[in-house]
Amino acid sequence: MPIDEYSHYFSNGDVKIHYHLYGQGPALVLVHGHPDNEMTFSMQIEEFSKDHTLILPTLRGYPPSDVPLDPEAYDGNVMASDLVALLDHLKIEKAVFAGGDVGGITVQKLAFLHPERLSGLVIFNTPILGTMMHLIHHDPEQQELSKYSLKYIKHNPGDAYDVDFVCRTITDPEYRAEIKEYLQNSPEGGMFYFFRKNFPAPPYGQNIDTSGMRYKMPCVVIWGMQEPYFSDKMLDGFYKWFDQSVRVVVLPQAGHWPWREDARKVNYELRSWLTALESGQL
User: Fold this and answer.
1) Contact 239, 215 (CB under 8 A)
2) pLDDT of 57-96, one tens digit each?
3) Cα separation, 19 vs 86, whole angstroms
4) For a tag on the chain, would you pick the N or C end, based on fewer CB atoms within 10 A?
5) CA of 156: how far to CAs of 164, 188, 203, in Å?
6) How far apart are CA 80 and CA 153, in angstroms?
7) Neighbour tally for 76: CB within 10 Å
8) Rounded distance, CA 170 to CA 147, Å?
9) Helix boundaries (H) for the chain
C-alpha cells in the first residue's frame, strides 16, 4: 500500500506535526534525529508493526511537520510536549519511547518531565544527558568531538550551509543521497535552532546541576561503537543515572545510526528487551 495511507497529523498548540502509524498492540514510538526524518526507521516497521502500535513522528522543524522560525519553539521541554500531545491525540496513556540523536535527547527530556507517560525508554547513540553535561564542560576529547555543533548553534535561517558536511557520517550512500535531497528541499532553520536551544556551547568549564537527569523507568541503551560525535566515556558509570533496570547493548561495527547500520541485531535486541519488559520481567 502507498506509504501515504499511514500518514497522519496532530497539533500541539498552533504547530502541526506529522506522524506515521502502523500496526496494533502496545505503543512503541521511534523518534528520529538530525538530519533524518521519520523514515530513518524504515527497517523497523515490518518487525515491530506485527504486534505493536508503531508510531513514527516527524519532529517539528522537519517537513512535512511545521517549521516555526522561533528559537524558543525548539526548547527541549517544548519538543517533549509534542510527544505528550501525540499520546493524548491517540488516546494512549503510556508508551515505550526510543530515540536517536535529536530524537534521543527529546525522549530523555520526556522521561525527566513526564515519566508517567513512559513504560520504557530506548536510547540509541545519544548522550546520556547527565554524563554529557560533565563531559562537554570538562573533557577535552568530548569538546573536540562536539566542534561540529558550533556551526549549527551559530546558524541563522537562510544562511548557507554544507549539506555534504551535515550528512558526512551517514554510511549508506543511497540513504545519504536521500537525506541530502530531503535537506535541499527543506527549510533548515528549525533543525539548527534545536542545537542553539539544547546543545551546550562555550564557555565550557561550568558545573551543571544534573540531579534531575534520572530515569525512573526500565531502559535499554543500544550503542554503535563507531560513534563519531560522542566519546566512549559516555558509557562510563552509566548505571548511576538509572533507578530501575538498564540493559546496555554495544555493537562494535555500527556507528551513529545503529538501527540502519546493523538493523538485524538492533531489531533482535530491541525485541528481546520489549518481550522482557512487556512480560513484567524488568
Assistant:
1) no
2) 999 999 999 999 999 999 999 999 999 999 999 999 999 9
3) 9
4) N
5) 18, 9, 20
6) 20
7) 20
8) 18
9) 42-48, 76-90, 102-113, 129-138, 140-145, 147-154, 163-166, 173-184, 189-198, 258-261, 263-278
27, β-bridge pairs? 53
Which of the 8 DSSP states describes residue 66? -
- pLDDT > 70? residue 2: no
| Helix runs in 114-262, H state only | 129-138, 140-145, 147-154, 163-166, 173-184, 189-198, 258-261
SS3 call for 215? strand
Fill in the amino acid letter for 16.
Answer: K
* Residue-wise pLDDT tens digits, 12-47: 999 999 999 999 999 999 999 999 999 999 999 999
> Residue 237: what residue type?
G
In this structure, are residues 243 and 216 in contact, taking their beta carbons and an 8 Å threshold? yes
List Cβ neighbours of 237 (8 Å cut-off, separation of 6 or more).
131
Q: What is the DSSP letter of 202?
A: S
| Pairing outcome for strands 15-22 and 53-57 | antiparallel
| Strands lying side by side in the sheet with 118-124 | 7-12, 15-22, 53-57, 27-31, 95-100, 118-124, 219-224, 246-251
- Please tell me the distance from the alpha carbon of residue 272 to that of residue 148, in angstroms, as a whole number: 35
Fold of 3-200+214-278: Rossmann fold (3.40.50)
Query: Can you tell me whether residue 57 is helix, strand or coil?
Result: strand
CA separation for the pair 152, 165 (Å, rounded): 11
Going by the DSSP 8-state scheme, the letter that residue 242 receives in this structure is B
- Run of H or E residues at 29: strand 27-31
